[in-house]
Amino acid sequence: MNRAERNNARHRGRRYFGLLKLGLRLFSVAHTALYRLTGGRFVGRLTPTAPTLLLTTVGRKSGKARTVPLIYLADGAAFVVVGSMGGSATHPQWWLNLRAQPEARVIVGGRIWRVRAEEARGAERERLWVRLVQIFPSFASYQRATSRAIPVVILHRAEDGGH
Asked: CB within 8 A of 124, min separation 6: which ones?
């Protein structure tokens, strides 16, 4: 277990086990497949105000490509995502992967972009957090459910210069 995983184990928050964990994984796999199949037309929004994208990271241990569907906020040319994992006590694997290797890929609708991840901090994080809760109010309850600071992650498009 690495340092980040040990720190995650110390946080209060929801724990997902057994059938619930399996169900969430199956939902993610199905969502990803339907998104790809329909170019995001079928499951491109979780709610009317919460658009989704597909984020592909490189596994920090396996080296394999891993894709997850995530709610996002458009902020200029960047995409902003949240590492909430439903208020769990641990960070999502995709965030740990991005911390190890910030280059990734996103699919929005039928378009693909290379991106570079950066964690929002301070006033920028607060500004983005308010907007994220507006598009998906459950993010606020997820933060209340856990003692860890939920990461707000800016995905800068590589062709836009990024950071």
From this structure: none
Q: Which residues in 14-37 are b (16+ Cβ under 10 Å) and which e?
A: eebeeeeeeeeeeeeeebbeebee
Query: Is 31 or 120 the better-scoring residue by pLDDT?
Result: 120
Tokens coding 82: 């949240």
Strand partners, 118: 154
CA-to-CA distance for 135 and 15, rounded, in angstroms?
A: 25
Global pTM reads 0.81
Report the candidate in 155, 15, 18, 23 with the shortest Cα–Cα distance to residue 94: 155
Tens of pLDDT along 111-120? 999 999 999 9
